[in-house]
UniProtKB/TrEMBL annotation:
Gene3D superfamilies per UniProt: MazG-like
Lineage of the organism: Bacteria, Pseudomonadati, Pseudomonadota, Gammaproteobacteria, Pseudomonadales
SUPFAM superfamilies listed in its UniProt record: all-alpha NTP pyrophosphatases
Protein's name in the database: Uncharacterized protein
Organism: Pseudomonas citronellolis
């Protein structure tokens, strides 16, 4: 079967959609253009959307590098006693992210204001903490999380089980 005969979803599964292609697919999405309209007074063209998405990718990568650099400088990736680099356990790193999400849920459950940033809800702050942890792990592992993010967004746009009609069907995804 040639690439032309594969569905977009199958091409993603086969690893045939790279970040540039994902950005191009997203830029032509009416949903993406509508979301970007809040930043521009005029209609959003695919060319404008492509430029915006490429900038987001660039600045996202910078944010990941910044967060990981700050955490490395604070000693989170080294032995506290010796200062020597230490290997971080992936399971532990995953659970640290889960902990932030759990703390966010506790904020939702009790409708709490954050105890450190008193002008924000705890849910919002803990989601921010989860993002910090995710981007730190991404930096520490050499992941390109923002490229993965755009590729996953584009993939989700073409997934049959993410379409409204599929979600409304019996046994469709409701949440």
């Amino acid at each position: 079967m040639t690439n032309a005969n594969l569905s977009l979803e199958a091409r993603f599964h086969a690893g045939q959609i790279d970040t540039d292609t994902a950005i191009a697919l997203l830029a032509h999405s009416p949903a993406v253009q509508a979301a970007l309209r809040q930043f521009w007074p005029e209609d959003v063209t695919p060319k404008m959307a492509t430029g915006a998405l490429r900038e987001m990718l660039h600045y996202g990568r910078m944010l990941q590098a910044l967060i990981h650099g700050l955490n490395r400088a604070a000693g989170w990736w080294s032995d506290l006693e010796t200062g020597e680099p230490k290997e971080r356990n992936d399971g532990e790193l995953c659970m640290l992210i889960v902990t932030e999400i759990s703390e966010g849920f506790e904020g939702v459950r009790k409708n709490l204001t954050d105890d450190k940033l008193g002008h924000r809800k705890m849910f919002e702050v803990e989601l921010g903490d989860a993002m910090i942890r995710e981007l730190d792990v991404g930096g520490g592992r050499g992941f390109d999380l923002f490229a993965a993010l755009f590729e996953k967004l584009a993939y989700n746009q073409c997934r049959s089980d993410h379409k409204r009609e599929a979600r409304l069907a019996p046994n469709g995804k409701k949440i």
